[in-house]
Amino acid sequence: MVDAALSALGSLAQPSLLVMLLIGVVAGLVMGLIPGLGGTGAVAILIPVTFGMEPEQAFALLIGALAVVHTSDTVSAVLLGAPGSASASVTMLDGYSMARQGQAKRALSLAFLSSMAGGIIGAIGLTLAIPLARPLVLSFASPELFMLTVLGVALAAVLSRGNVVKGVLAGLLGLLLGMVGTSPTTAEERFTFGSLFLSDGLSLVAVALGVFGLAEIATRVGQRRAPSTPITLEGGWFSGIREWLTHWTQVIRGSLIGIWAGVLPGVGATAGTWLAYGQAVATSKDKRKFGKGDPRGIVGPESANNSVEAGDLIPTLLFGIPGGVPSAMLLGMLLTYGIQPGPAIVSEHLNLLYLIIWCFAIASVVGAFLCFLGTPTLAKLTKVPFAVLGPGLLVVMLLGAFQESGQLGDLWVMVVLGVVGWLMKATDTPRAPFLIGFVLAIPMERYYYLTSSLNDGVGWLARPWVIVFLAVLVGPALWALFKWARGRRALAADDRHGPTAELAVHEEESEEGFLKDSPWSLGLAVAATFVFVAGFVASTGFSPEARLLPQLVCAVGLAFALVLLGKEVVGRTRWQPSGEAVRSAVLVATKTFALMAVFLVLVMVLGYLAAVLLFVPAYLLWMARARPRTTVIYGAALGTLLLVLPSLIPVDLPTGLLG
Amino acid sequence: MTIVVAHTATPEGAAALAAAVDAAVLRRSPVVVVSGEDPTAPPTVEDLLAGSETLARTVRDAGVSVEVRRSALPDAPDAVLQAAQELEAELLVIGVRRRSPVGKLFLGSTAQRILLDAQAPVLAVKA
User: Fold this and answer.
1) Within 13 Å and on the Cβ side, how many CA atoms surround A613?
2) Alpha-carbon distance values, A391 to A77, A96, A100, A110 (Å)
3) Does B111 sit within 8 Å of A287, measured CB to CB?
């Protein structure tokens, strides 16, 4: 195994891999700055770039980006008080206060060094996990792998939020969406309504970018940042470095907490970072300066939010359960390359595994170094209002989604899912289980059929690990039911501080679901019910093998949807009619999605280049109210980029009716 | 010298507030309220006193100063302890709930953490 590790390191000496890693790091740093993108957006945007590459190069790029996305998001949190991602809002508590006291460089150097250490410790954790998990993983056969996929969706649903019902519903909807296309067992077409386009299934990039990317754009495009007192970069770098060394215990503790949070499926950077912060405060004697510029409020959380991404990789690569949304997409990528996580990767692709670890560690170091060098530039980038970035991001995202199959249908799917994603975010429905369900749908079905055909009857349920997984799956549900039956319906304030409650933190969502408890939420529950009923009815037309899992998913989904419906109807009494802010947010989102649809129509008619040159300036001038000079430069830059891009990397631009 | 009270929208929380006000009258100290539910979004003083007419009268007649403090920390025990440290509180008042033996085993407790970590004397009040 040591030789596998060393040979992986040796393979990194190839210039092409190093170049990919570097590009990934730079891309990750830039995308970490842009609010709302985070690890998910970065991976989703880079995946199309990797089409046609060897797995080693592809993963060098993706891991390079993923490792550093949480290093740069601190910059906007500290300098502007506007976090680049939900996890950066923790660092903002003490980091921004420190910056306002004129010690921005101190805060940033503490943050960058902690991020670097978190990444390295996370990579070490991943390395140590391999020999520990290897004998276990090799003993897994299809029954255990099937249970793991079920567990993956279930845990993601339960751990992502306090609202378990919505989480499970999201997971089941994701599973159903994943089943659109050709059945893995009987090669029948399911839920395709006769469309050739749908018979290939939905594209992962389109789904991920739609549900997360477009929904974020629609939310943030209307937000005007309140002008704040500009913070100048003062202070020296070196004092921060020396001070950082004195907090090494916090770094190690934060990293370990992050790794553990990452290992839990569906629990990602946000929850891990808050956990680390809570631990740092709870274990310190002198709490006075927390929230006002205590370095311990930066060091621990920043280490955690980088090591979480490494921790996420442990269950993803070793067991095939995504640890978080970006890893869910990496999992999808692995499956596309034909590399099965779990037993296969540990025996045949050990080199790739170690390559990923080395990339993670090296990227963390390089990323921190680049952040130190490039802070002034990064700081300038953060000042660009999102409304200006929005159209550019949209163009890039749509282009990315187009690469997978060259069909415009993918882009429409993306926009429709963007609307769904926005609704989910607004009604406080977690989106992580949705994507995880989507990724795991086909593997789940495949493992189930392998299990049922290789084992007679239900004897496989008695295998030791299957029982363990069943216990983990069913245990908490039974206990929650038991507690509810004993009459403790309202969660008392005290109970919120138990260990599981601490994990029920906003995951990937940085704002309150402002449409929670509203008619919209009720509408979502009704729509979900309808979808599951329709799905159930539609699956009766399939052969028995192809219909089993869809019907099961629809049946369970219907049950949960009815429960949610009941809760919503009861909860209607709590709803106050929407205020001005809510109404305007809904209006902005509607306008944005309408414009996206218009853009797609333009693409269909005029082709991508022309549509972009028409749409982006119009958007900037009308919606973003940008200055004409900015618009011209922006439009010209985008246009040139689109002209030049096809010669640099193999991208296809959609062509329309007119060319 | 200040009296810090962790307030929740429960009978125990109301009892804690009442006990804090009584102690404030005796010690002639101001009362600072931290929310034991969401320290970053605490209720206003009016909301607090609206619950009980006798409480509002005591505050008015004895001239007790009651103030609500908003914390940057979202975790309630930490916010309360931070306030106590910063203000050098002479007394911390918390409301405690009766728990079954199983409840004491499984569930975390704001009250327990404050009790064990506080540097000031703690007054634990039942509803």
Assistant:
1) 11
2) 23, 29, 32, 34
3) no
CB atoms within 10 A of CB B60: 10
Q: Which residues of chain A does B120 touch, with a Cβ-Cβ cutoff of 8 Å?
A: none
Among A287, A492, A494, select the one facing B81 at the smallest CB separation: A287
State CA A397 to chain mean position distance. Answer: 15
Query: Helix or strand or coil: residue B122?
Result: strand
Residue with the two structure tokens 């299809």: A142
Q: Name every chain B residue with its beta carbon within 8 A of the beta carbon of A494.
A: 97, 107-111
Length of chain B: 127
Chosen from B34, B69, B70, B75 to mutate, greatest number of chain A CBs within 10 A: B75
Q: Can you list the alpha helix ranges (DSSP code H) found in A193-268?
A: 204-208, 215-220, 237-246, 248-263
Residue B73 near chain A (CB below 8 Å): yes
Neighbour count for residue B67 (Cβ, 10 Å):
10
- The pLDDT tens digits for A237-258 are 777 788 888 899 999 999 999 9
> How large is the ipTM?
0.73
Q: Which of A497, A503, A505 to mutate to test the interface with B (most CBs of B within 10 A)?
A: A497
Say whether A493 and B76 touch across the interface (CB within 8 A).
yes
User: What is the pTM for the complete model shown?
Assistant: 0.83
Measured on CA atoms in the order A200, A206, A210, A211, is the torsion positive or negative? positive
- The secondary structure of A90-141, three-state, reads HHHHHHHHHHHCCCHHHHHHHHHHHHHHHHHHHHHHHHHHHHHHHHHHHCCC
| Ranges of residues in chain B whose predicted pLDDT is under 50 | none
